[in-house]
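Supplementary Methods. Inverse-folding protocol.

Structures were first reduced to a discrete structure-token string of length 82. This string, shown here, constituted the complete conditioning input.
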């Protein structure tokens, strides 16, 4: 799931090198924390949140097929690395 999420988001942003996913596994749930370049936040969120909602739905679908629970959390305050 982590690799799929990374591939999806890196494909739609202008700064694919700044995209990272941290996978946090607790008992029966997996939280995928997504960070990206601040300029790409709008592209990841999309108009009225459509893109991030679609990404979350896709990840949840993949997780359901594997019999686990997963959710995507978008981390917003990511400082730019220079």
């Amino acid at each position: 799931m982590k690799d799929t999420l990374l591939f999806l988001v890196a494909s739609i942003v202008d700064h694919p090198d700044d995209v990272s996913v941290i996978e946090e596994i607790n008992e029966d749930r997996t939280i995928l924390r997504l960070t990206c370049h601040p300029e790409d936040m709008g592209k990841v969120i999309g108009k009225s949140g459509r893109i991030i909602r679609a990404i979350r739905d896709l990840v949840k679908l993949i997780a359901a097929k594997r019999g686990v629970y997963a959710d995507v959390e978008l981390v917003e305050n990511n400082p730019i690395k220079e």
